Amino acid sequence: MDTMARRKEHSHQEIRLMALDAVEQLLTQEEYTSLSLRRIASQVGYAPSTLINLFGSYNYLLLSVSARVLGRLLEQMQLVCQQTFTSGEQQLLALGKAYAEFAHIQPQAFRLVFALHLGPEEPLPESQQQLIAELIGLLEQQLGDLLPNLSSSKLALASRSFWSSIHGLTGLALDDKLFSQVSWLQLLTFQVHLWWTAMQQEEGACS
């Protein structure tokens, strides 16, 4: 079947989804840096120019994959927030575990979310900014409920501090750079304990 015939079989939206699925499938086997527009186009049976017309650029194609992955990560975090916990520390540990486990299940797709760099003429789309804001906002809301005496400015700092610490440990674990016989989960548990203890002290100073 030639390319012209395929163009008549699929809508633009279907081709977009095919391309996104193809990238995610490739990311189960290799790093995103080893991919190319030509390989992805070959996977879906369309010319590279077709994908450029649909996504705007190769980077925006990868960014669309990143958005799907980030959306699924956000959903996992939201599910944790719907659960009931006996302490703030347990809740934060559950959020950290959900984040790290998501990354370990699909490491290359997870890396793509945070490693992709857009060109100077490729502004970050508002939809992507919104996803990032929702992830940070979710953490900020949870911390606001757990630490009600913190000011809004300190909550903004706390949410980013917590996310940065969890993300850093997760990244080191994915790259096998923890240089420890202790598991990433044990380190995560200890890290959350230290962070939560410090934040309780900080909140006490604000009351």
Automatic annotation (TrEMBL):
Recorded superkingdom: Bacteria
Claim: Disulfide bond is one of the keywords in the record: no
Sorted UniProt keywords: DNA-binding, Transcription, Transcription regulation
Matching PROSITE patterns: HTH_TETR_2 (PS50977)
Residue spans binding DNA: 36-55
UniProt keyword Transmembrane helix present: no
Pfam family, one: TetR_C_33
InterPro entries with a match to the protein in the record: Homeodomain-like_sf (IPR009057), HTH_TetR (IPR001647), MT1864/Rv1816-like_C (IPR025996), Tet_transcr_reg_TetR-rel_C_sf (IPR036271)
Gene3D superfamilies found in the cross-reference section: Tetracycline Repressor, domain 2
Protein name: TetR/AcrR family transcriptional regulator
Originating species: Shewanella algae
